[in-house]
Amino acid sequence: MRYALEVVKITKAYDTSDGPLTVLRDMSFRAAKDEFVAFVGPSGCGKSTLFNIITGLIAPDDGGIIVDGQETTGRVSDKIGYVLQKDLLFPWRRVIDNIILGLEVKGVPRREAREKAMDLLAEYRMTGFENKLPGELSGGMRQRVALMRTMITDPQIILIDESYKALDYPLKIELEGELLQRVKGSGKTVIFITHDIEEAVTMADRVYVMKARPGEIVEEIRVDLGTDSFSIPERRISPRFNEYYNRIWQRIGAPQPVGA
Ligand SMILES: Nc1ncnc2c1ncn2[C@@H]1O[C@H](COP(=O)(O)OP(=O)(O)OP(=O)(O)O)[C@@H](O)[C@H]1O
Ligand SMILES: [Mg+2]
Fold first, then answer.
1. Is there a single domain that holds both residue 97 and residue 212?
2. d(Cα 132, Cα 96) in Å, to the nearest integer?
3. Which has the closest alpha carbon to 49: 11, 77, 15?
4. Same domain for 94 and 199
5. Same domain, yes or no, for 177 and 260?
6. What backbone phi and psi angles, to 5 degrees, belong to 211?
7. β-bridge partners, 40
8. CB distance 176 to 23 below 8 Å
9. Least confident window among 6-10, 62-66, 255-259
10. Pocket lined around ligand 1, Cβ cut-off 6 Å
11. Residue 46 alpha carbon, nearest atom of ligand 1
12. Whose CA is nearest to atom 31 of ligand 1?
């Protein structure tokens, strides 16, 4: 079987004033088409570093990244879209010009790019906001624009680093449900980082739990809530939800042995 993404024995150390700090050690995992995969783990365990390596923004010291059967280690693959931990919209560019950025870089004619962006704006219920500046939008709207900017290039793999953190609960579950509805069944792969165990269980088909220093996967949990619903509240009340939640919480919340 050909995986959408294979991460093979990644190791990465940063040079720090205290000497080299091994952030990731021998990290391997795979993700299939149509899968939603979540990463949870303590702050500083290397989640964003892992995503930066997958997207080719930084190179690993050892190990490889294979996207759709092709090695891309240390290179940016156009099959991957990345929503960064901070939304990082350009404050001086209008909404539409933020959205078309990825197409602009690829040299797509401006008119065609803008037409695509207008279609996306309609789909995300933001028609009329195309000429606003990011500073004029609410947090949820900015998050939608960041997602549109990623989606417009039609990536096969979408990496999302904690995008819903700053949002209030109703908006967060609305955006989570929207993402499920849009992407599930499209053949794309979504890999996301979250500190929110509830988000991991309601969204993911598989959850990887990481530990820190060095960052490693300590557990893989397959989630099957037994529902096809894309509604987050409906998924949340699945009778199996608590079992998964508790299992992850125990893995994260349990004290680690000294020196681990
Ligand atoms: N460029 C860098 N140089 C040196 N150390 C770094 C660098 N980037 C990250 N680190 C360190 O590597 C470790 C992992 O950082 P990373 O940002 O990957 O963690 P994270 O799991 O994403 O954390 P959070 O949940 O807080 O976002 C941290 O201890 C961080 O201080
Ligand atoms: Mg991070």
1. no
2. 8
3. 11
4. no
5. yes
6. -115, 165
7. 209
8. no
9. 255-259
10. 14, 16, 21, 23, 43-49
11. 18
12. 44
Ligand 1 nearest atom to the CA of residue 49, by list position:
18
**Which DSSP category does 125 fall into?**
T
Beta-carbon count within 10 A of 56 CB: 17
> Cα(87) to centroid of ligand 1, in Å?
18
Tell the burial category of 143 from Cβ atoms under 10 Å away from its Cβ (0-12, 13-18, 19+).
buried
Mean pLDDT, range 171-190, rounded to an integer: 91
Structure token pair of residue 228: 């096809």
| Phi, psi for 80 (deg, rounded to 5) | -115, 130
Same domain, 58 and 112: no
Which pTM does this prediction carry? 0.91
Q: What is the CATH number of the domain that holds 257?
A: 3.40.50.300
| 91 cis-preceded (ω within 30 degrees of 0) | no
The two beta strands, 206-211 and 216-222, are: antiparallel
Dihedral sign, Cα of residue 96, residue 97, residue 99, residue 100: positive
pLDDT given at position 143? 86
> Does the pLDDT of residue 100 top 60, yes or no?
yes
